[in-house]
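Long-time lurker, first post.

We've been arguing in lab meeting about whether GLP would sit comfortably in this protein at all. Half the group thinks yes, half thinks no, and nobody has a model to point at. So I'm putting the question to the forum: if I give you the sequence and the SMILES, can you give me back a predicted structure of the complex? Inputs are below. Any interpretation is welcome too.
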Amino acid sequence: MKIIRVSNYEDMSKQAGKLMVEKIRSNPSMVLGLATGSTPIGVYQYLIKDHKDNSTSYKNIKTINLDEYIGLPFGDSNSYHDFMKNNLFNHLDIQHENTYIPNGNAKDLDIECARYETLIQEIGGIDLQILGIGENGHIGFNEPGTAFDSRTHIVNLAENTRVANSRFFQSIADVPTHAITMGIASILDSREIFLLASGVKKAQAIACLMTGKWSEDFPASALMHHKNVTIIADEDALTVFDKEN
Ligand SMILES: N[C@@H]1[C@@H](O)[C@H](O)[C@@H](COP(=O)(O)O)O[C@@H]1O
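Top reply:
Settle the argument with this. Predicted structure of the protein with GLP, as tokens:
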């Protein structure tokens, strides 16, 4: 794993955004794997500004998202469909039919998981996957204990994940209990992965990832055996690692 150490959130967003734009310009029909949460918002802002200033085109780009809550009504502002439209897609020249997110309202969720997994292959696999990291080491919504050979599946969200994500909802009771997520094996199939981390809340998870052992108890550790992972982490997210090394 390669590490790019940056000073703060703004710097993380700029560095990751710059690298993404270079890749998009050299492969204008690439498949981007995208993430939600607070972490990638700054990167998306960088991409939007670059699109306006430098006309980087997304006309032939395909995107596929990691996950979606189950059961949030269509158009709910906390759904990852809305998050992606508001924070990225509506501000680019991307074709909306080329953006894919699991359907958390599908009648048959098992069929939806299988469909999504096939879709990843059909669009050619993911060239670059962007990941955040949960405080408990989750990637996508793959909670501790998820098998490393898992494919797109339904998850029961861990209580601490629901608490962490409740800041976007009116109350914890409104946070869905289930989600659909790409599996760890689906993520590992990506040809390249950027994992972004900012802030002291992520410091323990980043220290575990950089020094810890390969274990299904810590989902992000699956990345240790992928050959093209770059961690872009700021000083605050590296405090525990720095103290221990
Ligand atoms: N499903 C998402 C993850 O993809 C994300 O990485 C994580 C961290 O979120 P944040 O970036 O807001 O800290 O939260 C959610 O649970």
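For your lab meeting: Residues 35-39, 66-67, 132-134, 140-141, 161, 165 surround GLP (CB under 6 Å). Residues 2-198+214-231 form a domain with the Rossmann fold fold (CATH 3.40.50.1360). Whichever side wins, do check it experimentally.
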